[in-house]
Amino acid sequence: MTRPTWFEAFSLGDVGTVLRVSAGFVLVFVLAASLAPDTVQRVSQDLLHATATNLGWLYLLVTTGFVVFVLGLALSRMGGIRLGPADAPPEFSFPSWLAMIFSGGMGVGLVFWGVAEPMMHFNDPPLGDGLPRTAEAAQTGMRYAFFHWGLHQWANFALVGLAIAYVRFRHDSHGLISETLRPLIGDRVDSGWGKAIDVLTVVSTVFGVATTLGLGALQINSGIARLTDIPFGFPAQLVIVAVVGGLFMLSAMTPLDRGVKLLSNANMLLAALLLGIVLVFGPTPFIFGVMTQTLGEYLGTALQMSLVTSPYSSGEWVEQWTLFYWAWGLSWAPFVGSFIARISRGRTIREFVLGVMIVPVGLSMLWFSTFGGAAVHVELFGQGGIADAVSMEVSAGLYALFDQLPGTDLLTLASILLVGMFLVTSADSATFVLGMFTSKGVLNPTRAVRLLWGTLQLSMVVVLLLTGGLDSLQSVSIVAAFPFMLLMILIAVALYRDLAQELAMRDEKARVLNKRIERWLLRESEREAAEKAEAEIHPTVPEEGTQTGRSADDGRPAA
Predict the structure, then answer these.
(1) How far apart are CA 11 and CA 180, in angstroms?
(2) Residue 547, φ and ψ in degrees, nearest 5
(3) In this predicted structure, what is the pLDDT of residue 559?
(4) Which long-range contacts (CB under 8 A, 24 or more apart) does 44-52 make?
(5) pTM for the model
(6) How far apart are CA 179 and CA 107, in angstroms?
(7) Cβ distance 198 to 176 under 8 Å?
(8) Is the CB of residue 82 less than 8 Å from the CB of residue 499?
(9) What percent of the chain has pLDDT over 70?
(10) How buried is residue 206: exposed, middle or buried, by Cβ count under 10 Å (0-12/13-18/19+)?
Protein backbone atom coordinates (compact mmCIF):
# COMPACT_ATOMS: atom_id res chain seq x y z
CA MET A 1 0.00 0.00 0.00
CA THR A 2 1.50 3.34 -1.08
CA ARG A 3 1.61 6.36 1.17
CA PRO A 4 -0.49 9.38 0.08
CA THR A 5 1.38 12.19 -1.59
CA TRP A 6 1.68 15.61 0.00
CA PHE A 7 -0.96 16.94 -2.39
CA GLU A 8 -3.37 14.12 -1.56
CA ALA A 9 -2.85 14.57 2.18
CA PHE A 10 -3.71 18.26 1.97
CA SER A 11 -6.38 18.22 -0.74
CA LEU A 12 -9.79 19.78 -0.08
CA GLY A 13 -11.54 16.45 -0.55
CA ASP A 14 -15.18 16.13 -1.58
CA VAL A 15 -16.38 19.74 -1.49
CA GLY A 16 -18.84 21.57 -3.66
CA THR A 17 -20.81 24.74 -4.25
CA VAL A 18 -21.25 25.63 -0.57
CA LEU A 19 -17.51 25.99 0.02
CA ARG A 20 -16.86 27.96 -3.15
CA VAL A 21 -19.73 30.42 -2.69
CA SER A 22 -19.30 31.01 1.06
CA ALA A 23 -15.52 31.29 0.88
CA GLY A 24 -15.87 33.66 -2.06
CA PHE A 25 -18.32 35.87 -0.14
CA VAL A 26 -16.04 36.05 2.89
CA LEU A 27 -13.03 36.83 0.69
CA VAL A 28 -14.89 39.66 -1.08
CA PHE A 29 -15.86 41.17 2.28
CA VAL A 30 -12.28 40.95 3.53
CA LEU A 31 -10.95 42.65 0.40
CA ALA A 32 -13.60 45.38 0.53
CA ALA A 33 -12.92 46.08 4.21
CA SER A 34 -9.19 46.19 3.56
CA LEU A 35 -9.48 48.62 0.65
CA ALA A 36 -12.24 50.84 2.06
CA PRO A 37 -12.44 50.37 5.85
CA ASP A 38 -14.28 53.65 6.49
CA THR A 39 -16.97 52.81 3.95
CA VAL A 40 -17.48 49.33 5.39
CA GLN A 41 -17.74 50.73 8.91
CA ARG A 42 -20.27 53.37 7.85
CA VAL A 43 -22.41 50.88 5.93
CA SER A 44 -22.36 48.39 8.82
CA GLN A 45 -23.44 51.10 11.26
CA ASP A 46 -26.31 52.15 8.98
CA LEU A 47 -27.46 48.55 8.61
CA LEU A 48 -27.19 48.06 12.36
CA HIS A 49 -29.33 51.09 13.11
CA ALA A 50 -31.97 50.07 10.55
CA THR A 51 -32.08 46.51 11.85
CA ALA A 52 -32.28 47.49 15.51
CA THR A 53 -34.88 50.22 14.96
CA ASN A 54 -37.25 48.22 12.77
CA LEU A 55 -36.67 44.63 13.83
CA GLY A 56 -35.23 44.75 17.32
CA TRP A 57 -38.52 43.59 18.83
CA LEU A 58 -38.34 40.45 16.70
CA TYR A 59 -34.93 39.50 18.13
CA LEU A 60 -36.40 39.71 21.64
CA LEU A 61 -39.57 37.74 20.91
CA VAL A 62 -37.88 34.99 18.94
CA THR A 63 -35.00 34.45 21.35
CA THR A 64 -37.40 34.25 24.30
CA GLY A 65 -39.48 31.78 22.32
CA PHE A 66 -36.44 29.57 21.82
CA VAL A 67 -35.96 29.35 25.60
CA VAL A 68 -39.54 28.19 26.12
CA PHE A 69 -39.35 25.77 23.18
CA VAL A 70 -36.11 24.03 24.18
CA LEU A 71 -37.04 23.68 27.85
CA GLY A 72 -40.47 22.42 26.80
CA LEU A 73 -38.88 19.67 24.70
CA ALA A 74 -36.71 18.57 27.61
CA LEU A 75 -39.60 18.39 30.05
CA SER A 76 -42.00 16.65 27.66
CA ARG A 77 -42.11 13.02 26.49
CA MET A 78 -39.73 14.01 23.71
CA GLY A 79 -37.00 14.47 26.30
CA GLY A 80 -36.57 10.70 26.54
CA ILE A 81 -35.56 10.31 22.88
CA ARG A 82 -31.89 9.40 22.53
CA LEU A 83 -29.61 11.13 20.03
CA GLY A 84 -28.51 7.92 18.39
CA PRO A 85 -29.43 4.23 18.63
CA ALA A 86 -31.33 3.23 21.76
CA ASP A 87 -28.30 1.42 23.22
CA ALA A 88 -25.63 3.93 22.11
CA PRO A 89 -23.36 5.00 25.01
CA PRO A 90 -22.15 8.64 25.20
CA GLU A 91 -18.98 9.22 23.19
CA PHE A 92 -17.31 11.40 25.85
CA SER A 93 -17.40 11.35 29.64
CA PHE A 94 -19.73 13.86 31.29
CA PRO A 95 -16.92 16.13 32.66
CA SER A 96 -15.10 16.22 29.29
CA TRP A 97 -18.38 16.81 27.50
CA LEU A 98 -19.20 19.80 29.72
CA ALA A 99 -15.66 21.15 29.39
CA MET A 100 -15.84 21.10 25.59
CA ILE A 101 -19.29 22.71 25.63
CA PHE A 102 -18.09 25.51 27.89
CA SER A 103 -14.78 26.09 26.10
CA GLY A 104 -16.30 25.97 22.65
CA GLY A 105 -19.18 28.14 23.80
CA MET A 106 -18.63 31.34 25.73
CA GLY A 107 -15.25 30.92 27.43
CA VAL A 108 -13.59 33.94 25.79
CA GLY A 109 -16.65 36.13 26.28
CA LEU A 110 -16.84 35.39 30.00
CA VAL A 111 -13.23 36.37 30.57
CA PHE A 112 -13.67 39.57 28.53
CA TRP A 113 -17.00 40.67 30.04
CA GLY A 114 -16.75 39.14 33.54
CA VAL A 115 -15.61 42.45 35.04
CA ALA A 116 -16.25 44.77 32.12
CA GLU A 117 -20.02 44.39 31.82
CA PRO A 118 -20.94 44.93 35.51
CA MET A 119 -18.60 47.92 35.59
CA MET A 120 -20.00 49.42 32.39
CA HIS A 121 -23.51 49.12 33.84
CA PHE A 122 -22.17 50.57 37.10
CA ASN A 123 -20.91 53.60 35.16
CA ASP A 124 -24.01 53.89 32.97
CA PRO A 125 -27.06 52.11 34.48
CA PRO A 126 -29.19 50.04 32.07
CA LEU A 127 -32.03 52.00 30.45
CA GLY A 128 -31.04 55.07 32.49
CA ASP A 129 -32.55 53.62 35.68
CA GLY A 130 -30.82 54.96 38.78
CA LEU A 131 -27.75 57.09 39.37
CA PRO A 132 -24.31 56.03 38.09
CA ARG A 133 -21.85 54.44 40.50
CA THR A 134 -24.38 53.69 43.21
CA ALA A 135 -25.40 50.45 44.91
CA GLU A 136 -28.60 50.50 42.85
CA ALA A 137 -26.61 50.75 39.62
CA ALA A 138 -24.37 47.87 40.73
CA GLN A 139 -27.39 45.70 41.58
CA THR A 140 -29.08 46.38 38.24
CA GLY A 141 -25.84 45.81 36.37
CA MET A 142 -25.31 42.39 37.94
CA ARG A 143 -28.89 41.38 37.13
CA TYR A 144 -28.46 42.25 33.48
CA ALA A 145 -25.11 40.45 33.35
CA PHE A 146 -26.90 37.30 34.56
CA PHE A 147 -29.63 37.93 32.00
CA HIS A 148 -27.30 38.43 29.04
CA TRP A 149 -25.31 35.29 29.85
CA GLY A 150 -28.22 33.16 31.01
CA LEU A 151 -30.80 30.90 29.42
CA HIS A 152 -31.38 32.95 26.27
CA GLN A 153 -27.83 32.60 25.00
CA TRP A 154 -27.59 28.88 25.54
CA ALA A 155 -31.08 28.20 24.18
CA ASN A 156 -29.80 29.26 20.76
CA PHE A 157 -26.97 26.73 20.96
CA ALA A 158 -29.24 24.01 22.31
CA LEU A 159 -31.82 24.41 19.54
CA VAL A 160 -29.35 24.14 16.67
CA GLY A 161 -27.36 21.44 18.41
CA LEU A 162 -30.46 19.33 19.02
CA ALA A 163 -31.66 19.64 15.44
CA ILE A 164 -28.30 18.65 13.97
CA ALA A 165 -27.62 15.85 16.46
CA TYR A 166 -31.09 14.41 15.85
CA VAL A 167 -30.78 14.19 12.06
CA ARG A 168 -27.15 13.11 12.25
CA PHE A 169 -27.35 10.38 14.86
CA ARG A 170 -31.04 9.43 14.81
CA HIS A 171 -31.60 9.46 11.06
CA ASP A 172 -27.95 8.79 10.12
CA SER A 173 -28.02 11.83 7.82
CA HIS A 174 -25.50 14.57 7.04
CA GLY A 175 -24.76 16.98 9.87
CA LEU A 176 -25.87 20.05 7.92
CA ILE A 177 -28.30 22.82 8.82
CA SER A 178 -30.16 22.20 5.57
CA GLU A 179 -30.81 18.58 6.59
CA THR A 180 -32.71 19.75 9.67
CA LEU A 181 -35.29 21.35 7.38
CA ARG A 182 -36.10 18.22 5.40
CA PRO A 183 -39.40 17.68 7.29
CA LEU A 184 -40.52 21.09 5.97
CA ILE A 185 -39.12 21.40 2.44
CA GLY A 186 -38.54 17.75 1.56
CA ASP A 187 -36.21 16.92 -1.31
CA ARG A 188 -35.59 20.60 -2.04
CA VAL A 189 -32.91 20.26 0.63
CA ASP A 190 -30.83 18.50 -2.04
CA SER A 191 -31.24 21.36 -4.54
CA GLY A 192 -30.21 24.99 -4.61
CA TRP A 193 -32.42 25.77 -1.61
CA GLY A 194 -30.38 23.51 0.62
CA LYS A 195 -27.11 24.94 -0.62
CA ALA A 196 -28.33 28.49 -0.04
CA ILE A 197 -29.24 27.56 3.54
CA ASP A 198 -25.78 26.09 4.15
CA VAL A 199 -24.05 29.13 2.63
CA LEU A 200 -26.04 31.43 4.93
CA THR A 201 -25.06 29.26 7.88
CA VAL A 202 -21.36 29.37 7.01
CA VAL A 203 -21.29 33.15 6.51
CA SER A 204 -23.15 33.78 9.78
CA THR A 205 -20.75 31.48 11.60
CA VAL A 206 -17.66 33.22 10.22
CA PHE A 207 -18.89 36.63 11.39
CA GLY A 208 -19.87 35.33 14.82
CA VAL A 209 -16.58 33.56 15.45
CA ALA A 210 -14.63 36.56 14.16
CA THR A 211 -16.38 38.70 16.78
CA THR A 212 -15.21 36.43 19.58
CA LEU A 213 -11.66 36.15 18.26
CA GLY A 214 -11.52 39.92 18.01
CA LEU A 215 -12.69 40.34 21.61
CA GLY A 216 -10.04 37.87 22.72
CA ALA A 217 -7.32 39.75 20.86
CA LEU A 218 -8.38 42.98 22.60
CA GLN A 219 -8.27 41.23 26.00
CA ILE A 220 -4.80 39.78 25.43
CA ASN A 221 -3.49 43.11 24.11
CA SER A 222 -4.78 44.90 27.21
CA GLY A 223 -3.05 42.40 29.52
CA ILE A 224 0.26 42.54 27.66
CA ALA A 225 0.14 46.35 27.72
CA ARG A 226 -0.06 46.27 31.52
CA LEU A 227 2.95 43.99 31.84
CA THR A 228 5.17 45.46 29.11
CA ASP A 229 5.76 48.64 27.16
CA ILE A 230 3.82 47.30 24.18
CA PRO A 231 0.97 49.78 23.57
CA PHE A 232 -2.68 48.91 23.17
CA GLY A 233 -3.51 49.22 19.48
CA PHE A 234 -4.01 47.56 16.12
CA PRO A 235 -0.34 46.61 15.43
CA ALA A 236 -0.11 44.59 18.63
CA GLN A 237 -3.54 43.04 17.99
CA LEU A 238 -2.39 41.98 14.52
CA VAL A 239 0.58 40.12 16.00
CA ILE A 240 -1.67 38.49 18.62
CA VAL A 241 -4.09 37.29 15.96
CA ALA A 242 -1.20 35.85 13.95
CA VAL A 243 0.23 33.96 16.96
CA VAL A 244 -3.16 32.61 18.05
CA GLY A 245 -3.88 31.66 14.45
CA GLY A 246 -0.69 29.65 14.19
CA LEU A 247 -1.49 27.82 17.43
CA PHE A 248 -5.05 26.90 16.54
CA MET A 249 -3.99 25.73 13.09
CA LEU A 250 -1.53 23.37 14.77
CA SER A 251 -4.33 22.20 17.04
CA ALA A 252 -6.60 21.78 14.02
CA MET A 253 -4.20 19.19 12.64
CA THR A 254 -4.87 16.87 15.59
CA PRO A 255 -7.91 14.60 16.00
CA LEU A 256 -10.92 16.00 17.86
CA ASP A 257 -10.57 13.58 20.79
CA ARG A 258 -7.03 14.80 21.42
CA GLY A 259 -6.67 18.46 20.39
CA VAL A 260 -9.91 20.14 21.39
CA LYS A 261 -10.59 17.71 24.24
CA LEU A 262 -7.21 18.27 25.92
CA LEU A 263 -7.35 22.04 25.42
CA SER A 264 -10.89 22.19 26.81
CA ASN A 265 -9.96 20.26 29.94
CA ALA A 266 -6.90 22.50 30.43
CA ASN A 267 -9.07 25.60 29.98
CA MET A 268 -11.47 24.46 32.66
CA LEU A 269 -8.69 23.71 35.12
CA LEU A 270 -7.04 27.11 34.63
CA ALA A 271 -10.38 28.94 34.76
CA ALA A 272 -11.28 27.10 37.97
CA LEU A 273 -7.90 28.09 39.44
CA LEU A 274 -8.42 31.79 38.70
CA LEU A 275 -11.99 31.59 39.98
CA GLY A 276 -10.83 29.94 43.20
CA ILE A 277 -8.12 32.54 43.80
CA VAL A 278 -10.55 35.45 43.44
CA LEU A 279 -13.06 33.65 45.69
CA VAL A 280 -10.51 32.98 48.41
CA PHE A 281 -8.64 36.30 48.36
CA GLY A 282 -11.61 38.43 47.40
CA PRO A 283 -14.71 39.38 49.40
CA THR A 284 -16.06 35.81 49.65
CA PRO A 285 -19.23 36.47 51.72
CA PHE A 286 -20.10 39.45 49.52
CA ILE A 287 -19.64 37.37 46.35
CA PHE A 288 -22.00 34.62 47.49
CA GLY A 289 -24.48 37.20 48.74
CA VAL A 290 -24.44 38.89 45.33
CA MET A 291 -24.90 35.56 43.56
CA THR A 292 -27.88 34.55 45.72
CA GLN A 293 -29.69 37.86 45.48
CA THR A 294 -29.00 38.36 41.77
CA LEU A 295 -30.19 34.83 40.97
CA GLY A 296 -33.48 35.58 42.70
CA GLU A 297 -33.86 38.89 40.86
CA TYR A 298 -33.02 37.25 37.54
CA LEU A 299 -35.59 34.49 37.97
CA GLY A 300 -38.20 37.00 39.12
CA THR A 301 -37.73 39.49 36.28
CA ALA A 302 -36.46 37.31 33.41
CA LEU A 303 -39.64 37.66 31.36
CA GLN A 304 -39.80 41.40 31.83
CA MET A 305 -36.14 41.89 30.84
CA SER A 306 -36.64 39.57 27.87
CA LEU A 307 -39.19 41.87 26.24
CA VAL A 308 -37.88 45.37 27.03
CA THR A 309 -37.65 47.51 23.86
CA SER A 310 -37.77 51.05 25.37
CA PRO A 311 -40.21 52.38 22.73
CA TYR A 312 -40.99 55.49 24.80
CA SER A 313 -37.47 56.88 24.61
CA SER A 314 -34.83 57.44 21.97
CA GLY A 315 -32.19 55.58 23.95
CA GLU A 316 -30.00 52.97 22.29
CA TRP A 317 -29.19 50.86 25.34
CA VAL A 318 -31.17 47.79 24.19
CA GLU A 319 -29.52 48.01 20.79
CA GLN A 320 -26.03 48.27 22.26
CA TRP A 321 -26.46 45.50 24.81
CA THR A 322 -29.35 43.03 24.64
CA LEU A 323 -29.66 43.01 20.84
CA PHE A 324 -25.90 42.66 20.49
CA TYR A 325 -25.83 39.68 22.84
CA TRP A 326 -28.80 37.96 21.21
CA ALA A 327 -27.37 38.53 17.73
CA TRP A 328 -23.95 37.35 18.85
CA GLY A 329 -25.50 34.19 20.26
CA LEU A 330 -27.54 33.64 17.08
CA SER A 331 -24.48 34.03 14.86
CA TRP A 332 -22.61 31.58 17.10
CA ALA A 333 -25.51 29.11 17.14
CA PRO A 334 -24.58 27.16 13.98
CA PHE A 335 -20.96 26.83 15.09
CA VAL A 336 -21.49 26.04 18.77
CA GLY A 337 -24.62 24.00 18.09
CA SER A 338 -22.90 21.89 15.44
CA PHE A 339 -19.87 21.35 17.64
CA ILE A 340 -22.02 20.34 20.62
CA ALA A 341 -24.02 18.04 18.36
CA ARG A 342 -20.80 16.41 17.17
CA ILE A 343 -19.77 15.51 20.74
CA SER A 344 -23.25 14.54 22.03
CA ARG A 345 -23.90 11.18 20.44
CA GLY A 346 -25.67 8.87 22.90
CA ARG A 347 -27.22 11.63 25.07
CA THR A 348 -30.97 11.89 25.51
CA ILE A 349 -32.70 15.14 24.57
CA ARG A 350 -33.39 15.85 28.25
CA GLU A 351 -29.77 15.24 29.19
CA PHE A 352 -28.62 17.33 26.25
CA VAL A 353 -30.77 20.33 27.17
CA LEU A 354 -29.90 20.22 30.86
CA GLY A 355 -26.20 19.83 30.06
CA VAL A 356 -26.15 22.60 27.48
CA MET A 357 -28.36 25.12 29.29
CA ILE A 358 -28.46 24.58 33.04
CA VAL A 359 -24.83 23.70 33.82
CA PRO A 360 -23.12 26.38 31.66
CA VAL A 361 -25.61 29.00 32.82
CA GLY A 362 -24.86 28.12 36.44
CA LEU A 363 -21.11 28.38 35.80
CA SER A 364 -21.59 31.72 34.03
CA MET A 365 -23.52 33.10 37.00
CA LEU A 366 -20.81 31.94 39.39
CA TRP A 367 -18.17 33.59 37.18
CA PHE A 368 -19.95 36.95 37.03
CA SER A 369 -20.72 36.85 40.74
CA THR A 370 -17.07 36.22 41.53
CA PHE A 371 -15.31 38.63 39.17
CA GLY A 372 -18.06 41.21 38.76
CA GLY A 373 -19.02 41.01 42.42
CA ALA A 374 -15.41 41.47 43.55
CA ALA A 375 -15.07 44.51 41.28
CA VAL A 376 -18.31 46.02 42.64
CA HIS A 377 -17.06 45.49 46.21
CA VAL A 378 -13.84 47.38 45.40
CA GLU A 379 -15.88 50.28 43.99
CA LEU A 380 -18.44 50.47 46.81
CA PHE A 381 -16.31 49.60 49.83
CA GLY A 382 -12.69 49.78 48.67
CA GLN A 383 -10.28 52.10 46.91
CA GLY A 384 -12.10 52.02 43.56
CA GLY A 385 -10.40 52.59 40.23
CA ILE A 386 -11.82 49.63 38.30
CA ALA A 387 -14.79 51.60 36.92
CA ASP A 388 -12.42 54.33 35.71
CA ALA A 389 -10.18 51.75 34.01
CA VAL A 390 -13.16 50.22 32.19
CA SER A 391 -14.43 53.61 31.07
CA MET A 392 -11.06 54.27 29.45
CA GLU A 393 -10.50 50.77 28.01
CA VAL A 394 -13.19 48.09 28.22
CA SER A 395 -10.82 45.12 28.22
CA ALA A 396 -8.75 46.53 31.12
CA GLY A 397 -11.31 45.76 33.83
CA LEU A 398 -10.05 42.26 34.64
CA TYR A 399 -6.47 43.43 35.13
CA ALA A 400 -7.60 46.39 37.27
CA LEU A 401 -9.29 43.85 39.54
CA PHE A 402 -6.10 41.79 39.74
CA ASP A 403 -4.31 44.92 40.96
CA GLN A 404 -6.37 44.56 44.15
CA LEU A 405 -5.23 40.96 44.77
CA PRO A 406 -1.88 39.41 45.73
CA GLY A 407 0.27 38.10 42.87
CA THR A 408 -1.03 40.63 40.34
CA ASP A 409 1.49 39.84 37.61
CA LEU A 410 1.02 36.07 37.93
CA LEU A 411 -2.74 36.45 37.76
CA THR A 412 -2.42 38.67 34.69
CA LEU A 413 -0.17 36.13 32.97
CA ALA A 414 -2.55 33.31 33.85
CA SER A 415 -5.53 35.24 32.46
CA ILE A 416 -3.65 36.01 29.22
CA LEU A 417 -2.84 32.32 28.91
CA LEU A 418 -6.47 31.40 29.63
CA VAL A 419 -7.82 33.78 26.98
CA GLY A 420 -5.26 32.48 24.49
CA MET A 421 -6.26 28.88 25.17
CA PHE A 422 -9.95 29.73 24.90
CA LEU A 423 -9.26 31.45 21.58
CA VAL A 424 -7.36 28.45 20.25
CA THR A 425 -10.13 26.09 21.37
CA SER A 426 -12.91 28.22 19.88
CA ALA A 427 -11.10 28.80 16.61
CA ASP A 428 -10.14 25.13 16.35
CA SER A 429 -13.74 24.10 16.95
CA ALA A 430 -14.94 26.67 14.42
CA THR A 431 -12.63 25.46 11.67
CA PHE A 432 -13.81 21.93 12.36
CA VAL A 433 -17.48 22.88 12.09
CA LEU A 434 -16.98 25.09 9.04
CA GLY A 435 -15.15 22.19 7.43
CA MET A 436 -18.14 19.94 8.15
CA PHE A 437 -20.58 22.46 6.69
CA THR A 438 -18.59 22.88 3.49
CA SER A 439 -17.63 19.22 3.01
CA LYS A 440 -21.17 17.86 2.68
CA GLY A 441 -21.52 17.17 6.40
CA VAL A 442 -18.65 14.71 6.90
CA LEU A 443 -17.67 14.18 10.53
CA ASN A 444 -13.95 14.60 9.86
CA PRO A 445 -13.22 17.29 7.24
CA THR A 446 -9.81 17.33 5.59
CA ARG A 447 -6.91 19.35 6.95
CA ALA A 448 -6.84 21.53 3.87
CA VAL A 449 -10.46 22.63 4.34
CA ARG A 450 -9.83 23.42 8.01
CA LEU A 451 -6.70 25.40 7.14
CA LEU A 452 -8.63 27.32 4.50
CA TRP A 453 -11.31 28.36 6.97
CA GLY A 454 -8.72 29.14 9.61
CA THR A 455 -7.02 31.55 7.23
CA LEU A 456 -10.31 33.21 6.22
CA GLN A 457 -11.37 33.60 9.86
CA LEU A 458 -8.10 35.27 10.78
CA SER A 459 -8.44 37.61 7.81
CA MET A 460 -11.96 38.53 8.91
CA VAL A 461 -10.77 39.30 12.45
CA VAL A 462 -7.99 41.54 11.15
CA VAL A 463 -10.26 43.64 8.92
CA LEU A 464 -12.92 44.00 11.62
CA LEU A 465 -10.32 45.24 14.10
CA LEU A 466 -9.01 47.56 11.39
CA THR A 467 -12.42 49.05 10.60
CA GLY A 468 -13.44 50.02 14.11
CA GLY A 469 -12.51 47.54 16.80
CA LEU A 470 -15.25 46.62 19.28
CA ASP A 471 -17.96 48.76 17.65
CA SER A 472 -17.36 47.15 14.27
CA LEU A 473 -17.43 43.66 15.78
CA GLN A 474 -20.77 44.37 17.45
CA SER A 475 -22.36 45.94 14.39
CA VAL A 476 -21.43 43.18 11.97
CA SER A 477 -22.56 40.41 14.33
CA ILE A 478 -26.04 41.92 14.76
CA VAL A 479 -26.62 42.45 11.04
CA ALA A 480 -25.26 39.05 10.01
CA ALA A 481 -27.36 37.19 12.59
CA PHE A 482 -30.79 38.39 11.41
CA PRO A 483 -31.28 36.04 8.43
CA PHE A 484 -30.09 33.07 10.45
CA MET A 485 -32.57 33.93 13.21
CA LEU A 486 -35.39 33.56 10.68
CA LEU A 487 -33.89 30.26 9.60
CA MET A 488 -33.80 29.06 13.21
CA ILE A 489 -37.56 29.56 13.48
CA LEU A 490 -37.98 27.08 10.63
CA ILE A 491 -35.47 24.74 12.29
CA ALA A 492 -37.57 24.72 15.47
CA VAL A 493 -40.76 23.93 13.53
CA ALA A 494 -39.03 21.14 11.57
CA LEU A 495 -37.50 19.63 14.71
CA TYR A 496 -40.84 19.56 16.52
CA ARG A 497 -42.53 17.96 13.53
CA ASP A 498 -39.80 15.32 13.29
CA LEU A 499 -39.95 14.50 17.00
CA ALA A 500 -43.74 14.42 17.01
CA GLN A 501 -43.70 12.02 14.08
CA GLU A 502 -41.29 9.71 15.89
CA LEU A 503 -43.48 9.71 19.00
CA ALA A 504 -46.55 9.04 16.86
CA MET A 505 -44.80 6.08 15.19
CA ARG A 506 -43.69 4.82 18.60
CA ASP A 507 -47.24 5.12 19.95
CA GLU A 508 -48.62 3.31 16.89
CA LYS A 509 -46.16 0.46 17.34
CA ALA A 510 -47.08 0.23 21.01
CA ARG A 511 -50.79 0.23 20.12
CA VAL A 512 -50.36 -2.57 17.56
CA LEU A 513 -48.24 -4.59 20.00
CA ASN A 514 -50.78 -4.16 22.79
CA LYS A 515 -53.59 -5.20 20.48
CA ARG A 516 -51.73 -8.36 19.49
CA ILE A 517 -51.02 -9.18 23.12
CA GLU A 518 -54.69 -8.65 24.00
CA ARG A 519 -55.75 -10.97 21.19
CA TRP A 520 -53.31 -13.62 22.31
CA LEU A 521 -54.42 -13.27 25.93
CA LEU A 522 -58.06 -13.37 24.84
CA ARG A 523 -57.61 -16.59 22.89
CA GLU A 524 -55.72 -18.05 25.81
CA SER A 525 -58.46 -17.06 28.25
CA GLU A 526 -61.16 -18.48 26.00
CA ARG A 527 -59.29 -21.77 25.79
CA GLU A 528 -58.85 -21.90 29.54
CA ALA A 529 -62.54 -21.10 30.08
CA ALA A 530 -63.61 -23.95 27.74
CA GLU A 531 -61.33 -26.41 29.52
CA LYS A 532 -62.60 -25.26 32.89
CA ALA A 533 -66.24 -25.57 31.78
CA GLU A 534 -65.62 -29.07 30.46
CA ALA A 535 -63.96 -30.13 33.69
CA GLU A 536 -66.90 -28.83 35.75
CA ILE A 537 -69.61 -30.86 33.83
CA HIS A 538 -70.97 -33.71 36.08
CA PRO A 539 -70.56 -37.24 34.59
CA THR A 540 -74.33 -38.02 35.04
CA VAL A 541 -75.43 -35.06 32.95
CA PRO A 542 -77.04 -36.42 29.76
CA GLU A 543 -75.56 -35.60 26.44
CA GLU A 544 -77.01 -32.91 24.22
CA GLY A 545 -80.34 -33.84 22.62
CA THR A 546 -81.72 -35.76 25.66
CA GLN A 547 -83.89 -34.68 28.57
CA THR A 548 -83.46 -35.86 32.12
CA GLY A 549 -85.66 -38.89 33.07
CA ARG A 550 -87.56 -38.97 29.69
CA SER A 551 -87.25 -40.99 26.50
CA ALA A 552 -85.81 -39.19 23.55
CA ASP A 553 -88.28 -40.97 21.26
CA ASP A 554 -91.77 -40.70 22.73
CA GLY A 555 -91.35 -38.42 25.68
CA ARG A 556 -92.53 -41.15 28.12
CA PRO A 557 -90.55 -41.99 31.17
CA ALA A 558 -87.86 -44.46 30.53
CA ALA A 559 -88.41 -47.97 31.66
Answers:
(1) 28
(2) -120, 145
(3) 39
(4) 44/467, 44/472, 44/475, 44/476, 44/479, 45/471, 45/475, 47/475, 47/479, 48/319, 48/474, 48/475, 48/478, 48/479, 49/319, 51/478, 51/479, 51/482, 52/316, 52/318, 52/319, 52/323, 52/478
(5) 0.82
(6) 29
(7) yes
(8) no
(9) 86
(10) buried
